[in-house]
Amino acid sequence: MSDNQNLLAEQRRALILDEVRRRGGVRVNELTRRLSVSDMTIRRDLDALARQGMVAKVHGGAVPVAEPSTHEPGFEAKSVLEPSAKDEIARAAAALVLPGSAIALSGGTTTYAMARQLLDVPDLTVVTNSVRVADVFHEARPASGEGRRAPTVVLTGGVRTPSDALVGPVADRAVRSLHFDLLFLGVHGLSVEAGLSTPNLAEAETNGCLIRSARRVVVVADHTKWGTVGLSSFGTLDEVDTWVTDRGMAVEVRAEVAEHVPGLLVAGGAAA
Fold first, then answer.
1. Residues 6+ apart with CB under 8 A from 133
2. Whole-angstrom distance, CA of residue 117 vs CA of residue 87
3. How far apart are CA 39 and CA 21, in angstroms?
4. d(CA 206, CA 134)
5. Where is coiled-coil annotated (predicted)?
């Protein structure tokens, strides 16, 4: 096989992998039509991706490889996933915040992106259990004499997770003593059956405390989080007031979510 053919195969497999991750599975006959290649070529591509551990082959196609429910990627690893979607979600969610509000931001890369969008909202009080989120506000503090009031930031304390969230009894006690208008919650996964979930048991408890201390719960999560289930559930979809997501969410999934979540805000799209 020539170098050019090798390159084309790599590009084709990248497209297949993207489809598997975006749609939750692909069929051989769909890929042959879309990519204008033979069934045998697609099957070879799926074999190659399966050998690399990137997809799982099923009859007639392939599906994503299921991660263990205890797998917890670190902050840096999560930062490179869906960055454009996270930025869109962050901008849309930040638009929900009114000056003078008391809000909470949980740990996560999407809430981190959102923090950067909130720097110019006046008179905010921000409760967070995220070291990264607190750093955003700390590093953006106005210099003396600039005349702009920095947000008041309450960092809960606690034990640090791989995703740089502070959890455990210290964090839980701090959160339970507070009350905020809006909670912006990043999640590891969402599904109808498991609700909101995380692979970290201590983080699940702290997130549950955040939900119970909030007047309104807003989940900020891109479309790839749908159908992912972590080890521990900490809330149901019915406890979510609004889910801010991206345009990658399939229409049929939007309809399913709308049966449980009153507000579905698609960043760059329309509210459902």
1. 105, 107, 111, 112, 115, 126
2. 9
3. 21
4. 17
5. none
Q: Please give the single-letter amino acid code of residue 34.
A: R
Whether the Cβ atoms of residue 181 and residue 101 lie closer than 8 Å to each other: yes
11: left (phi over 0), alpha (psi -120 to 50) or beta: alpha
pLDDT values of the chain reduced to their tens digit, one per residue, 272 residues: 334 445 478 888 888 988 887 777 788 999 999 898 999 999 999 998 888 877 888 888 888 776 665 556 666 666 767 788 999 999 999 999 999 999 999 999 999 999 999 999 999 999 999 999 999 999 887 654 455 677 899 999 999 988 889 999 999 999 999 999 999 999 999 999 999 999 999 999 999 999 999 999 999 999 988 888 888 999 999 999 999 999 988 888 899 999 999 999 999 865 55
Tell me how far apart the alpha carbons of residues 154 and 226 are, in angstroms, rounded to a whole number: 30
Cα 122 to Cα 9, 87, 119, 202, distances in angstroms: 52, 21, 8, 33
Residue that has been written with the tokens 């692909």 in this structure: 26
Under a CB-based contact definition with an 8 Å cutoff, are residues 204 and 197 in contact?
yes
Taking each continuous run of H as one helix and of E as one strand, the counts in the chain are 10, 15
- C-alpha R_g of the chain: 21
Contact 96, 147 (CB under 8 A): no
Whether the CB-CB separation of 5 and 41 falls below 8 Å is answered with no
Say what angle helices 169-176 and 201-212 make with each other, to 10 degrees: 10
Backbone angles phi, psi at 240, to 5 degrees: -90, 130
CB 118 within 8 A of CB 152: no
* pTM confidence score: 0.73
